[in-house]
Amino acid sequence: MTHEKNTNHLILVVDDEKRMVRFIRLNLEQDGYQVVSAYNGSEALEQVRTTLPNLVLLDVMMPDIDGFEVLKKIREANSVPVIMLTAKGEEDDRIRGLEMGADDYITKPFSPRELVSRVKAVLRRTESYGESKNVIQVDDWLKLDFNRREIWVGGKLVQLRPTEYRLLYHLVQNAGWVVTHDQLLTKVWGYEYQGEEHYVRLYINYLRKKIEKDPSNPTYILTERGVGYRFVDYRR
Fold this sequence. Notes:
By secondary structure, this protein is of the alpha/beta class.
């Protein structure tokens, strides 16, 4: 049995119990998924920002920042699917998580079969309308394949640094709309970088040099002076 379809899916597992993380990792990797882990809320937020997972498995009970607060912070900057891991009988936790933007929940203890089936169901549900949009042919010059994390410029594969990739990803996800400096700083660098607009300007310049035909006269990443940047609406 092959799992070719799953190999492009990166799952972030967040739980302070290392045995639980190992259990989940083992079963997801056996089904072909890539897995990264975090053992507290702060690590989880950093992993969401830096690795851009396709789905997050998030435990409710954690020591520093509980799962609800982590979910709230994720939803302020990201629409990644989230499945909450809740204790048996904690119906209030399940309802609260769903109301705050979680996509599903799994009650502990759960079987490997239930885990994998829930992950597949949420990914299928959230990607049924969005997966094809993750392969974007902007025009004859620029192709963006966010499923494979590949950027093609003039028919050639271009290597982006992780920060450049995250910046481009968030701009493209909001194509046609202005994304402010502070929004980009939060999504790409983290909450602690508010006000550090020079980071955005520097990496916008890096990106333009790699994807624009003429970086001094950009046609993809447009400047909205005093506000932020806008990726051209390729869907028109």
